[in-house]
Automatic annotation (TrEMBL):
This is Putative MFS family arabinose efflux permease. The keyword Chaperone does not apply. The keyword NADP does not apply. The chain crosses the membrane at residues 36-60, 72-90, 128-150, 156-177, 198-222, 234-254, 266-284, 290-315, 327-347, 353-374. GO terms for cellular component: plasma membrane. Gene3D superfamilies: MFS general substrate transporter like domains (1.20.1250.20). It is a multi-pass membrane protein. The lineage of its organism: Bacteria, Pseudomonadati, Pseudomonadota, Alphaproteobacteria, Hyphomicrobiales. It comes from Bradyrhizobium stylosanthis.
Amino acid sequence: MRNRWGILAILFVVRLTIAFQFQSVAAVAPLLQQTFGVGLADIGILIGLYFTPGVVLALPGGAIGRRFGDKPTTIAALLLMTAGSLVMATTDVWGWQMAGRLTSGAGGVLLTVQLTKMGTDWFAGKEIATAMAIFVNSWPAGVAISLLVLPAIGTAYGAGAVFAATGTLTVIGIVLITLYQPPPGAKVGASSSGRLDLLALLAVIVAGTIWGLYNVGFAMIFSFGPSLLAERGWSIAAAGSAISVVMWLSVISVPSGGYLADRGRPFVLTIAASLVVAALLAWLTRSDAVLTILVLIGMVGGFPAGPIMSLAARVLAPETRAIGMGVFYTLFYAAMMLGPAIAGRLAKSAGTAAAALDLGALAVLACPPLMWLFERIVSVRVRHAQS
C-alpha cells in the first residue's frame, strides 16, 4: 500500500491496540480490587507499570528500529504485548499480574516509538499536525472502546477474560502491520549519522515533557475517573460509560485541533486549550455536574494533541528522526510511569480518587510555560542556523 492516508489508517488501528491494552486495568479497577484484594495505590502502580519500560527502552527503541527495520520491530513489539496479556489472563497471583503488565508495556514502548517514526516519515512537511492528530486519536478511540467493552466482559467472565481480549486485539494488529510499506526514499541506513545538535536535543526534551505532562492530566480522567464515580455510588459499567464520553468526543476534537493548527496558530490553540482543560479537571472533583464537565473536556481536551505531537518533527531531520523520537518518548514514559503511581498514593492518603484528578489539573497547567520555552529554543536554533 502506497497511499499515505491508507498507511495512516493502518497505523491508527495498530496503535489503538496500545491504548486498549493500557486501559484494561483502569477499566476494571474495582473488579481487580475485589479479585486480588488490593487498594487504589496498588492499582495506580499497576497502571503506571505499563509505562515503566519506556524510561529505559524508548531511547534504544529508536536505535532498534533503525537496526532491524520498521516492520520487524513492530511485529516483535506486538508479540511482546500479546505475551503480556496472556500472562495476566492466566494467573491469579498479583506479582505475575505485574510481570505481565511490564512485558506488555515493553512491547507498547517499542511499538509507540516505531509507529510515530513511521507516521512522521509519511507526513513530515505536509499536513503533519493533521496527520499526527489523527494518529494520536487512536489513543482516545482505544480507551473509549475499552471503557465500553471491557467492564462488561469483566463483569460477565472475570478479569482473565479482559486480558484475553486485549491479547486477541494485538494479534489482529500483527496481521494489519504486514500491509505497511515505507514511503519512497525514506530508508535511512543504520550507519547514517543520527546525532542531534544540542538545541534540537533540548527542544525534543521539552516537547517530550509537554506531551508527558499533558497525557498525565488526561490519563487521570480515565485511570481514576471510574473510581471517583464509583465512590459516588455509580456502578462499574455506568462509570466506565460516563468516562468514555471524554474519549468519544476526543475522537472529534483531536483531528479538529490538528486541522486548526495546520491552518492557524498552534501555539495559541495549545495554550488556551490547556488552561481550559486544567480548570475543568479541577472543577470535576468539586461538582456534581459530571456529564457536563466530561462533555466539555472531550470537546476541548483533544485540541492540543496534534500540535504537541508535531513539535518534535519541527527540529528532526529524517536521519535523526528515530533517535529523536526515542528521546521524546523517554520523557513521555517517565511522566506516565510516575504520574499514576503518585496519583494512586495521593488518592490513598486523601481517601478519595479526587486527589488524582487534582494532580492531573496541575500537570496540564504546567504545559503552557513549557510551550513558550520550546518556541524560544526553536527561535534561537533558527537564528544560529542563519548566522
